[in-house]
Amino acid sequence: MQRRSRGINIGLILLLSQIFHVGINNIPPVTLATLALNTWLFLNPVKPLFDSCISVEKCYQQKDWQRLLLSPFHHADDWHLYFNMASMLWKGINLERRLGSRWFAYIIATFSLLTGVVYLLLESSLAAFLDEPDFRRTCAVGFSGVLFALKVLNNHYCPGCFVNILGLPVPNRYACWVELVAIHFFTPGTSFAGHLAGILVGLMYTQGPLKKIMETCAGIFSSDIGYPRQQYYFNNSGSSGYQDHYPRGRPGHYEEAPRNYDAYTAGLSEEEQLERALRASLWDQGNTSNNPPPYGFHLSPEEMRRQRLHRFDGQ
User: Fold this and answer.
1) Which of 74, 75, 80, 195 is catalytic?
2) Which residue in 88, 92, 87, 80 sits closest to 42, CA to CA?
3) pTM for the whole thing?
4) Active-site residue flag, 71
């Protein structure tokens, strides 16, 4: 197994510090397992990044479909890991407490696979439409696409709310699109198609047939999955609680949703995560010597070769 060189990973240190500040006991189990899996695979990658990223050429033409499973859980560098997992921490606490651990784990697995599939379809379509074969060779890695899908889902459960993006209040229904444009305006090295794929998967769940398909599959393959069906009530600040209703007559229970999620995220809001990411990207653009690849979903071929040479022993 290839291992990353033992340098000082400031992003990893910040991530672990934030997790311990929140408190492991305050992080729901699936969210905690997702954080642990991504961190473990960052330190102990199954394969080098060049052999884990997804592209039309590698997956479809060369039939290397295992990349669909590997690519979401591998990261280019410690800052890439930090920004993705800090966002996952915030979203996971919100969504897992709302949906239940079993259904949230099902969502994570489904979104991880579908985001890669939609990404391949987008890149293949762009290559055919623009007659540009480089789109088939563009390789992507990281959890960002899944996070954009979860962002759509999280915003869906808070109708009428606003988020602050670069100082501007944006309605939740448009927030993902504004962030998509903002991130790629300030950090052009990230994969637009990868993040767009995540948004489309999220919309397939909230506005399309994906949720019904998942419920049908859950009923076919597991008669006792017990996924919750929530009824929400709202106050002036948005969603503040829910009632669980289980199929087949299982009793539901009421759980008060935490109203101040800063208690679980060390005060790091999602907007602050975006602003930190943009500032870090602007700093990186001004420091072009020996830079790591930019955090995000995208990893260009040249960056992957350099990552392979400098981040993995024996390469």
Assistant:
1) 195
2) 80
3) 0.71
4) no
